[in-house]
Amino acid sequence: MDITKFRSALQRDAARPNLFRVTLNLPAGLVQADRQFNSKFSFMCRAAQIPGSTLGRLPVAYMGREIGLAGNRTFTDWTVTILNDEDFQIRRTLEEWMRGMNSHQQNVRSEQFLSSTSYVATGIVDHLGKSGEDNVIASYTIINAWPMDLSPIDLGWDQNDTAEEYTATFSMDYWE
To answer: Residue 82: which of 161, 16, 168 has the closest Cα?
Structure first.
């Protein structure tokens, strides 16, 4: 294969995985508590995923032979990695969100999250091009997301010259 043909096949150069922006619009019950979450989250979300999905396979047998038909679509969980700073603002907001859906001690839901639509949010992953922050080359909207896992933050006396980070995994209904 000719390297010149390969280079010409990259019409607009290769997309870079380090050029992205993530926005997470909090549920209404949390917005009042944290008005600056979105702008800070976009800066502190240091890793994310373009969400995935899977089409199931529906096997159908006919006279000893099997064919596969397209089944239902399922959506994988969405995980982001967040850089922690000393005010713990993002971490505390995510903890409050999860506590509102199911408290630690009493196993109850808060009044603001009684409806299944009241505790979900919309996330947006914008994949950016090399020509600047306004050059969105692909955008994915995560619909009805809620945090289902907040990873621990490891502490240690030997953790020199590193910044704290943790992951948050969100369940979602689907993405567009």
So the answer is: 168
**Mean local confidence (pLDDT), 108-129:** 92
pTM over 0.70: yes
Residue type, 158: D
Task: Say which DSSP state 113 is in.
Answer: G
Looking at residue 111, the DSSP 8-state letter turns out to be G
Give the DSSP letter of residue 112.
G
- 163 neighbors 148 (Cβ within 8 angstroms): no
Centroid of chain to Cα 140: 10
Question: Which two structure tokens, joined as six digits, stand for 152?
Answer: 């621990």
Segment holding 32, helix H or strand E? none
d(C-alpha 165, C-alpha 46), whole Å: 9
